[in-house]
Amino acid sequence: MYGIFVIKIKLLQGILYSLFGITAQILGNVVIFLIIARTLGPSGFGEFSIYYAVASVLAIILDYGYPQRLLKNFSIECNLYGGLRKRIFYLKGIILSIETMIALPVLFLIDSNQLLFFMLFLSTALFSFANIFSSSLRALGKFRSDSAHLFIIYFIGTALAMLVYFSEIDEILVFSLIFCVINALYLFLSIRCYMRFSSIKHEPFEMNSIISELKLGGVYAGDIFIQRGFIYIEIIILALLTNPYLVGIYQAGQKLMLGVLPFAQAFNNVLLPYLSLDNNYKNSNKVVLVFVAMSFIGFVGLMGFYYVGEWVVNIVYGKEYEDLKEFIVLFGVVILIRYISSSLSIVLTAAGRQNVRLKGNAICFMLFVIIAPLLVWLYSIVGMLYAVIASATLSSVFYFQGVRSIYKNNTRIL
Q1: Considering the entire predicted model, what is its pTM?
Q2: Are 35 and 162 a contacting pair, CB within 8 Å?
Q3: Residue 279 burial by CB count (10 A; 0-12/13-18/19+): exposed, middle or buried?
């Protein structure tokens, strides 16, 4: 009994430490983007958001599913190899090189703001490499260290953004430089801390080992790309079918939503390694508790957007973003559905059912890509939110069926 109590206390501490770091990340990201939105206005903010979305999609490809994969399997990596193997960095270097060779010539051909994109792409690439070390730290239970790193970089980022705002500098490149600075610092802090607890195993550059790594992470990469890429694909579709002003309005609402959604990551960072350990995911009571707790948080988010959403828009963005009020509640609906989906996805990943997630997400992604342009053409921003809600709901249904299959012989659950 005492041992179970100690485990619960450690889990709670882990969640709180992770929650602290993610809160800092939310505050930094939301406040920084809020300042950008207020400084540049809806149209300028829309332009910035388009470039940031494209850079972020490339960064998700560069991640190659490692943040999720290492949370689940880093303890195995440590036991077998003594730490991270260099093949991980070889593979990421190859992916980064290919992305650079493709993206930059295309940008020059379409006569876009190449420097803005390059700086945003650099900042997201730095964060992607930092995620390798930060995810490993979380898998080792070092939530406090990673949370401190996130707090430091986003405190500095927020301070710099506020300095730019009060200096009345409306140069869009200055904000992209801020992201480069704080993400470079995050990489430095994560590497320094990681090397205190583990190591990087040296190995020669061999294509066979890199191809093996490519195959091993393919399912994770595909799943995470589809899951995380949604929010950026939304922006890209809107950019193609509407105008920077509407993109800026939508992105403003999306940032408020993203100020609530990442709290699910705190549960993911702690519960995924725990449920993966010793097959704890087979304990139906623990799974039900995760589902109920995260669904409740999503419901609270929906109620918050319903009752105070318009007031928050007034306070945070001002009169220029008045149009956002018309559909702010729909962002709350997305929050509820995605929290439900996240609770189920944690169980599937812990159970090694990543292929179930990938298949479900792939179907939902294809559906979204088909219906989103049509609904945007018919209903503009509201149409995009209808498409997001439909795809997120279908994804939750797939996850639920996947979880049910795990416990099909256990009558106590689902």
Answers
A1: 0.81
A2: yes
A3: exposed
Residue keyed to tokens 């930060």:
134
> Per-domain residue ranges for the chain?
2-406
Inter-residue long-range contacts of 310-318, CB under 8 Å, 24+ positions, other chains counted: 312/256, 313/252, 313/256, 316/34, 316/256, 317/34, 317/37, 317/38, 317/252, 318/38
Of 95, 96, 143, 151, whose CA–CA distance to 121 is shortest?
96
Give how far Cα 45 sits from Cα of 40, 69, 71, 201, 250, Å.
5, 34, 34, 43, 10
pLDDT digits 0-9 by tens, 95-152:
999 998 888 777 766 656 788 888 999 999 999 999 999 888 888 877 778 888 888 8
Separation of CA 181 from chain center: 20
Residue where the block lists tokens 């509820």: 336
**SS3 category, 201:** strand
Other residues' Cβ atoms within 10 Å of the Cβ of residue 85: 17
Q: Which amino acid appears at position 317 of this protein? A: Y
